[in-house]
């Protein structure tokens, strides 16, 4: 730390991203919930030489080509959508702009680990709301919240989802608090809250093109809500980074949003792979939380989460392990191709059969 750093940030604990190895040639990478399939074919076509030459020019600050494609997909008006450099940036704008009464932000105790970091950097008080015994988010715990509510749906790293009716229940009990639903993984089987935007002016829905549209490397996320909320977020964006999306990301994002067929095909494939994979893991005695995401959270009585994680690494398979009393026995496994999941289940079978009784936890 240099002597120039503002004191406010001296105790800041940055977010730790999942490992991004330099070469993935020999690796089965199931640690950061990327999509195993390529982006929509139109994405590759639209990044032409001519477009690359145009990189000498700034991108369009409104990214309207992209926001119009998103608005078209969801039947919203363009002014109800704002795009960002990944949904991480959109979330940063939200935490900067809205911190509820007394600067409080409530979120589930086990959830996306970036929320406490945003609280820290933007000076909000993060309030961790406990989960049920079974890792469920309980709507009644958020009634009359004194602050902004941020809920990942489906939740991460559990994959468990609230229904639209349960989200509406939270909205109805918080007419004067902003409710942010982070739907990074919603396209893998959960219900989106987008349809509630017209009824609830306290709702912001955040989504990303990183997961269900195979564009993690392009960094495209967005928020949808009332035109007033979106105008507030634009106020922040234009005070921070007006050209937040580069020209190529805007083009790629718009193409990906327009190709419904590719989107449907790839997300269905991932959901089918997930169901088959869960069955295999359960056959081997794993407990797998009910997932509506492109990952599962799994544990076994026979091997600790940490040990399983390290053993898989020896097979060149990377998954994610989160230390902690409630999460430490689990690993989070991204759903890849059927071949990748087969390699993982085979490795798991070998790991389990190689266990001496003494290494059981
Ligand atoms: N929200 C959640 C719950 C996530 O897991 C992620 C991915 N790490 C994000 C938001 C951010 O995704 P991106 O910035 O790639 O849009």
Quick recap:
With 361 residues, the protein is α/β, with parallel strands linked by helices. It contains eleven helices and twelve strands.
Question: What does it look like?
Answer:
This protein has 361 residues and is an alpha/beta fold. Helix content is 35%, strand content 14%. The protein is built from eleven helices and twelve strands. The chain has helices at 41-46, 49-53, 64-74, 86-97, 114-122, 164-172, 227-237, 247-258, 260-283, 305-314, 338-353, and strands spanning 28-29, 81-84, 104-108, 125-129, 148-152, 179-182, 203-208, 221-225, 287-288, 295-299, 317-318, 330-334. The strands form three sheets. Strands 2-8-7-6-5-3-4 form a seven-stranded mixed β-sheet, sandwiched between helices. Strands 9-10-12 form a three-stranded antiparallel β-sheet. It has a two-stranded parallel ribbon with strand order 1-11. Strand 3 (104-108), helix 5 (114-122) and strand 4 form a beta-alpha-beta unit. It is globular and about 60 Å long. 45% of the residues are buried. 4'-deoxy-4'-aminopyridoxal-5'-phosphate binds next to helix 4.
Keywords for this structure?
361 residues, alpha/beta, seven-stranded mixed beta sheet, three-stranded antiparallel beta sheet, binds 4'-deoxy-4'-aminopyridoxal-5'-phosphate
């Amino acid at each position: 730390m240099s002597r120039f750093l503002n004191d406010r940030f001296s105790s800041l604990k940055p977010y730790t991203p999942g490992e991004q190895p330099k070469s993935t040639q020999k690796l089965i990478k199931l640690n950061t919930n990327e999509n195993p399939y390529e982006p929509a074919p139109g994405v590759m076509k639209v990044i032409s030489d001519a477009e690359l030459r145009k990189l000498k020019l700034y991108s369009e600050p409104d990214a309207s080509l992209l926001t119009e494609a998103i608005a078209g997909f969801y039947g919203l008006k363009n002014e109800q959508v704002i795009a960002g450099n990944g949904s991480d940036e959109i979330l940063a704008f939200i935490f900067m702009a809205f911190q509820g009464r007394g600067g409080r932000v409530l979120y589930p105790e086990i959830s996306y680990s970036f929320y406490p970091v945003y609280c820290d950097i933007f000076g909000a008080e993060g309030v961790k709301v406990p989960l049920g015994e079974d890792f469920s988010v309980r709507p009644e715990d958020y009634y009359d919240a004194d602050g902004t509510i941020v809920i990942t749906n489906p939740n991460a790293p559990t994959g468990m989802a609230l229904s639209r009716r349960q989200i509406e229940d939270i909205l109805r009990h918080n007419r004067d608090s902003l409710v942010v639903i982070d739907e990074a993984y919603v396209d893998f089987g959960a219900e989106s809250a987008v349809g509630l935007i017209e009824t609830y002016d306290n709702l912001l829905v955040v989504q990303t093109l990183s997961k269900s549209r195979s564009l993690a490397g392009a960094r495209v996320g967005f928020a949808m809500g009332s035109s007033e909320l979106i105008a507030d977020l634009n106020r922040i964006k234009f005070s921070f980074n007006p050209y937040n999306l580069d020209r190529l990301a805007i083009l790629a994002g718009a193409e990906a949003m327009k190709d419904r067929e590719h989107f449907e095909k790839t997300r269905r494939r991932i959901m089918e792979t997930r169901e088959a994979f869960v069955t295999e893991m359960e056959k081997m005695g794993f407990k797998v939380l009910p997932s509506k995401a492109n990952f599962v959270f799994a544990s076994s009585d026979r091997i600790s989460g940490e040990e399983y994680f390290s053993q898989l690494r020896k097979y060149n398979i990377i998954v994610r392990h989160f230390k902690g009393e409630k999460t430490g026995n689990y690993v989070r496994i991204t759903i890849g191709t059927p071949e990748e999941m087969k390699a993982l289940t085979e490795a798991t079978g070998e790991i389990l059969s190689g266990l001496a009784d003494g290494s059981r936890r």
